[in-house]
Design goal:
Layout: E1 3-7, E2 13-17, H1 22-44, H2 50-72, H3 81-106
Antiparallel strand pairs: 1-2
Helix pairs in contact: 1-2
Length: 108
């Protein structure tokens, strides 16, 4: 993100961040809609291999998560490291819990 510099009357330099316009949000929204349409088309097209459809849906879901986190929740911006660390910790704990629950259910 570009910054603009403005001189104050006392000679110091103030940094001001340029506001992010709606163009990037519109592009991300259209990309999210396209990903959703691809996922619906893969499921609706009956002749697609089930394994391929599941993998495609998982890839589309991961892309959607990154787009939504980065652009709609503004985690791509500076100063959002702590929320990212807490979310990664939550994903790790949730993933570990799911793997362990599956292991306990199917352990012989």
């Amino acid at each position: 993100m570009a910054t603009e510099q403005h001189s104050a009357s006392n000679g110091s330099v103030k940094h001001r961040h340029r506001q992010e316009g709606p163009q990037r949000h519109i592009v991300v929204f259209v990309f999210s809609v396209v990903l959703t349409l691809i996922a619906f088309a893969a499921v609706a097209a009956g002749g697609v291999n089930a394994t391929f459809a599941v993998v495609l849906l998982l890839v589309m879901a991961v892309l959607q998560v990154f787009l939504q986190m980065g652009f709609w929740m503004h985690l791509k911006d500076k100063g959002h490291l702590l929320p990212i660390i807490f979310m990664l910790g939550g994903f790790f704990i949730a993933g570990t819990s799911i793997v362990m629950a599956l292991y306990w259910v199917w352990w012989d």
